[in-house]
Amino acid sequence: MLAVISGTGFYTLGKEKEDLRVSTKHGVANASLVTFANEEIVFLPRHGKSHLIPSHKINYRANAAAMRQLDVTGILAIYDCGIVSSKYKIEDLALVDDFMNLTGAPATFYDDFSLGIHQKDFTHPFDERIVDTIAAVSRSKKIGIKDGAVIGTTIGPRRETRSEVKALEKLGANLVSNSAGFEMALLGEGEIDFAAVAVASYYCAGLEPNPKKKKIKHDDSLTVMKNATPKLENLIAGLASELH
After folding, report:
1. Which of 37, 45, 119, 152 could form a disulfide with 168 if both were Cys (CB 3.0 to 4.6 A apart)?
2. What whole-number distance in Å separates Cα of residue 66 and Cα of residue 74?
């Protein structure tokens, strides 16, 4: 059974069949079992259904642990992202190839090594089977998805400064998120098969091509995600049928 973890602007999917409050040793994760495209899917909006949880308050450990307990066959993580380089433009969908989290904030299940040393290899963080399936579904359904996305991670909820954006690009990021690096690290440590798709929803500070637009607004990201939702749902429908 496929699980979908979604973010800003994507708070519901299909018809809710069962409310899932999953108790883990890291806290409670709130998800739903939904019916979509004739398949059952576990759906978890990381900010909550009403976007009441800011990125720095999300219980990523509980969410990742819940995915393990629910024994899903694979996860599609969706992130709305800021554009760091000219590789992407607004409303582009991108298959994530790598991520970085140099914030210094911990994102791990292993606060001590009392049960042994754990240092997960992240050379290839994403499951090849799911990545290949996303690519195949996008081709068959003519969903335009670019490749090569590298998401840098910053601590929100504030947006990045111009200098931070320049630094991220020099380090190799072409998109940025307040959630990706924390969540992906935990999904990887949990040995959960997953892949990620990013939606380019705003130009980061200093990169807006329209000089008259001076501020980055949350509502603009919501509009982009609303426009991207049909493509994302089409992709999810294809994935769910392959990963059930």
Report:
1. 152
2. 13
CB atoms within 10 A of CB 154: 25
- Gyration radius (Cα) of the chain, Å: 17
Q: Is residue 213 part of a domain?
A: yes
Question: Are β-strands 15-24 and 2-6 bridged in parallel, bridged antiparallel, or unpaired?
Answer: unpaired
Give dist(CA 127, CA 92) in Å, integer.
22
pTM: 0.95
**By C-alpha distance, which of 202, 207, 198 is closest to 146?**
198
Please give the sequence-ordered ranges of beta strands (E in DSSP) within the chain, or none if there are none.
2-6, 15-24, 27-36, 39-45, 74-83, 93-100, 146-153, 175-177, 194-203
CATH code of 42's domain: 3.40.50.1580
Instruction: Tell me the per-residue pLDDT of 31-85, one tens digit each, with 9 for 90 and over.
Output: 999 999 999 999 999 999 999 999 999 999 999 999 999 989 899 999 999 999 9
Q: Using alpha carbons, select from 122, 108, 107 the residue that is nearest to residue 56.
A: 107
Closest CA to 187 of 105, 82, 107: 107
Domain that holds residue 7: 2-107+123-243
Three-class SS of residue 200? strand
In a domain, residue 113? The reply is no
Other CB atoms within 10 A of residue 18 CB: 11
Measured CA to CA, the distance from residue 240 to residue 244 in angstroms comes to: 6
